[in-house]
Each structure stands twice: as C-alpha cells, then as structure tokens.
Amino acid sequence: MVSFRRAIYRVGKRAGWPAIGLLAAIMLAVIAVPNQAFAHAAMVTTDPVDGTVLGQSPTQFSLTFSEPVSPLVLTLVRPDGTPLPLTAFRLNDQTVEIDNPQTLGSGTHVLSWRVISADGHPVGGSVLFSIGAPSAAPAVSEAADRGLRSAIWIGKVFLYVGLFLGVGGAFAIAWLAKGGRSGQRFVIAAILGGLVAASVSLGLQGLDALGAPLVRLTQPGVWQAGLGTSFGRTVLVALVALGLGLLSLIVPRGSARLFALAGLAGVGAALAASGHASAAEPQWLTRPMVFLHGAGIAFWAGALAPLGLAMWRKPVEATPFLRRFSLGILPVVAVLAATGIVLAIIQVEAPAALLDTAYGRLLLIKLGLLFFLFTLAATNRWKLTGPAEAGETEVQRRLVRSIGIEMLIVLAIFGVAAGWRFTPPPRALAIAAAQPASVHIHTPKAMADLSITPGHVGPVAASIVIMTGDFGPLDAKQVTLVLSKPDTGIEPIKRAATKRDDGTWRVVDLVVPVPGRWTARLDILVSDFEIVKIEAPIDIRR
Questions:
Q1: Alpha-carbon distance 456 to 516, whole Å?
Q2: Distances in Å between the alpha carbon of 514 and those of 368, 430, 490, 493?
Q3: Average pLDDT of span 170-197
Q4: Cβ proximity of 417 and 297 under 8 Å
Q5: 65 pairs with which residues across the strands?
Q6: Cα gap 385→144, rounded to integer Å
Q7: Is the model's pLDDT at 15 over the cut of 60?
Q8: Helix or strand or coil: residue 328?
Q9: Are 439 and 51 in contact (CB under 8 A)?
C-alpha cells in the first residue's frame, strides 16, 4: 500500500493534482449526460395479436410499447422448436417493426422479444400465433433465473456501500476530519468493494438485458449489452467517483479535498444517470433531485464510520469532527427530506399505490427505517452531541453505540432500495395502463384498426378506422362494435359507432367489465343489402 501511494503521489505531483481533479470532474459531466429518458416501458399491442390464427405467413411483425425502446433479442421459434434470429428491424417512435426473413409453414409459432427501456431495465415477453391451424406451442426458455436476480441485488447493495460509505467516507475524512485518519481502512475497503461491485454489475446487467443465465457472464457480448444500457453510464460514472474517493485518501491534504468533493458529486451523478426516478418526467426536476438526494446520502452515511471510529479511539481529537458534522448535517437532512418527498410523490402518484404495488410496499418499509434513523439521529444531535463535545466519557460511548446502530439501519435501507431494481414504480404502471388496447383486423373484403382507450377495464372509448381489403377507402353507412367473452357469462356488448369529420368511427358510451381476451367484431354496413362482419381477439388489461 505504501509503494502504491508513493507511485500515485509521484504521478500526481508531475501532472498537478488540481489539473487531474478538474479533468476527472469533466469526465464525470461528459459520462453522466444522458440521452432522452422515458418511463419503464410496457407492451401495448402486437401484430400479429397474441393467439391469433393467420391464413398465410406474415411479411413482418410489429411490437408497440408505451415508450420508445431498443431491441436486444428478437427471435422467432418455429413449431418444431428451432429458433430463427430476427435481425432486421426498424424503430418507428414507440413501435418496433420487424422483417420476417422467410415464409412460415403451418402450425404455432412464438415471437420472443426482449427490449431495454430508457430507464435501463429490460422488458421481455412472447407472442403466440398460428399459420393455418394451431399446433402444440414450442417451448421458450425462461428469461432469467433467481440466481441472477439475487446476484443483481447483491451487486447493487455493494455498489451502494462503495458509493455512499466509501466515497462519502472519503469526503468526511477530507472535509470534516481535516487530517484525522480514523476509519480510513474501512473507507478504502468499501471503495474497493464498490469498484468490484460496479464492474460485476455491468456484466449482470448485460445478462439481465439479454435474458441469459449466469454461466454466460464471461462472454464479451454480455458486457457490451450491459454497457449499451443506461445503467452502463451509471457504472462508468460510479467507477470515476470511486476512483476519486480513493485518490483523496492518497494525495496531499489540499488536493484531497478537491478529489473528495468531485467524488461526492460523482455519487449524485451516477444515481442520476439511470434508474426509475431519474427517468421520470419532468426531467429538469427529477434528475437534479436524484443528484442532490444521492450526494446528501453520501454526506450523511459516509461520515458515520469515520466519526464513530474516531469517537471510539481518540475522543478528544474527534471533538472538532463531531462539531463540524453536527453543524453540516442539519441542511443535508433538510435537502434529503425535500428531495425524497418530491421523488416519492412523482413515483407513487396516488396514496393507494403504497399498498397496491410492490414498489409502494418497499417504499413504506424504507420510510419506516428512515423514521427510526431520523429519530436516532435527532437524539444524537440534540441530546448526546453537546455532552460528548464537553468530554463526558459515558456519553461518548453511548454516541459510538448509537452511530453503530445508525450504520445497521443505513445498510438495511440499502437492501430495500436495491429491491426497486425489480419493481416498476406506480407512475410507470399508470402510464402503461393508460395505453390503448389495439388490434388490426384484415380480411379480403374489409380491414380495420380498432383501438380501445384506455386498454383496461372500466369506462373506455373505441376508435375505428375502416378500409377495403386492399387498403382503399370504404364509405360505410354504419359501423357497429360488438365485444363478447362467452366464458364469463356476460352477454355481448353491442354499440353503434358515430362517424367523425376525420373519417374515423368512435364509440364513447362503452364499459368493459372484466379483463382478459375479448372477441371484437365489427359489423360494417357497406350498402342497404350487404353487411361485412370482421373480428379478432383483443386483450383488455386489469
């Protein structure tokens, strides 16, 4: 360690520590600048519709999502189980248009897809359709296993430890301890653990993105896929921040403060580069809120271990450290509370979602832990800090024990927060639920595009565009929508559509009572003597 520190010192002395710190800050800013971000994507509609039976092989497929996505893996599984990679596709706003490279034979096929949304989280699924007549559906392997999810969660926790306790601890040593070295070994261990966790998490992200098992972790394509997601930016910024924190423990004291400050900023930038909260709208509000929230957590949590160890080993020398921390923590807690409330309101939207969603329940657990943490911190600040600064030995021991308990609560909060990696927030679920349920119906005599908005149970409105079978205009005299679901015992819902000035037909007095697969039929009165009836299945969400 000594020789390593000397080598780093020589390099820094030659190049100039302030110049290196400024360069690192610029690197952080460049890496952290995101592309346009969106909410957690959800499937809206597919073509062919899941479960449909086609008369002939389609020339292309399409997948429409609630937000724009980037395809990762697109595969067509034939009836005999052989996969056919689909590599030719186009992105058209929220729709992925996929070319079918060959004519398909009869039987049931599976269109398997896996895409990445801009918040960095992969979304996958499959669509079954048949040519001619259904057959036994081919087997499609599961996208991910529990071992991978556990590894992702562990990696996230250790990354938090490295960023908050490691980089935050380095900041506390440089700015609050001012020369004191208590807790330095702990901070170095946390940073080194964070460096390993950040690196491994990139590969785990690639596995999750591709839906691949853990045994493929060493494959280059997996790491490339992870780097291509928005989480890749978080890893790059985190690595720089961790490196800055480590350097602040090695370089001279004057430069150490610059590196520590840049590292603390890097913690906030890393969290703001990807994730549910940072991808929420409005971006101009949520990203700064996440940045401040992350930096505030690092300031508070990072100071705990160095301060507690200093109070335990050298209570007299730790008194100035304690005084500076007790003065600085008040505005930091205010920032944490304000940013946390704003982000929670944006993510949860409705109070009922706190109990109705996994994200909300995790938030309640975190709030409970925060209540204990704030209560303990307030006790330390208002009851123990003064006597401890005055040199009362027993109070100093109580403060050390209390700081240890704070550390345990902080670690528990890290574990809860890491669980959000697998739970889309209510905000994203609401956006997905508001998307329409759509279907394209095509027959030789007539075709139609039917959209039911929103695509879930309750009051909805239907929009219908009709054409001839060869995509020509169809001047219908009347259009009637019939929704039926015989397995529920509910009588078919029949509503006459009204033609609008733009040529579309619309039904507004419509209520869909139950979720599931409905049959949508359109009775199109072409003339006084001819009615064309076309139908297709349509999925209504809960």
A1: 9
A2: 36, 18, 9, 12
A3: 93
A4: no
A5: 43
A6: 49
A7: no
A8: helix
A9: no
* DSSP symbol at 307: H
Eight-class DSSP state of 420: G
Q: Can you give the pLDDT at residue 261?
A: 96
Q: Which amino acid does the sequence have at 399? A: L
> Whole-angstrom Cα distance, residue 158 to residue 165?
10
Residue type, 433: A
Rounded to the nearest 10 degrees, how much is the dihedral formed by the CA atoms of 271, 274, 277, 281? Answer: 130
> Exposed e or buried b for every residue in 247-277, given b needs 16+ CB within 10 A?
bbbbbeeebbbbbbbbbbbbbbbbbbbbbbb
The closest of 294, 278, 292 to 428, measured between CA atoms, is: 278
Can you spell out the DSSP letters for 434-473? TSPEEEEEE-SSEEEEEEEESSBSEEEEEEEEEEETTS-B
pLDDT at 140: 58
Q: Are 75 and 41 in contact (CB under 8 A)?
A: no
CB–CB of 441/522 below 8 Å?
yes
pLDDT at position 9 over 70: no
Phi-psi category of residue 399: left, alpha or beta, with phi > 0 → left and psi -120 to 50 → alpha: alpha
Structure tokens of 390? 């005055």
> Which are the contacts of 1, defined by CB distance < 8 A and separation ≥ 6?
none
Q: How many CA within 13 A on the CB side of residue 94?
A: 16
Q: Phi and psi at residue 530, in whole multiples of 5°?
A: -140, 130
Confidence of residue 20 (pLDDT cuts 50, 70, 90): very low
- Length reported for the chain: 542
pLDDT in tens, 364-400: 999 999 999 999 999 998 999 999 888 888 999 999 9
Question: What local confidence, expressed as pLDDT, does residue 141 receive?
Answer: 53
Q: Which residues contact residue 22 at a Cβ distance below 8 angstroms, ignoring those fewer than 6 apart?
A: none
Per residue in 399-421, pLDDT tens? Answer: 999 999 999 999 999 999 999 98
- Is the model's pLDDT at 468 over the cut of 90? no
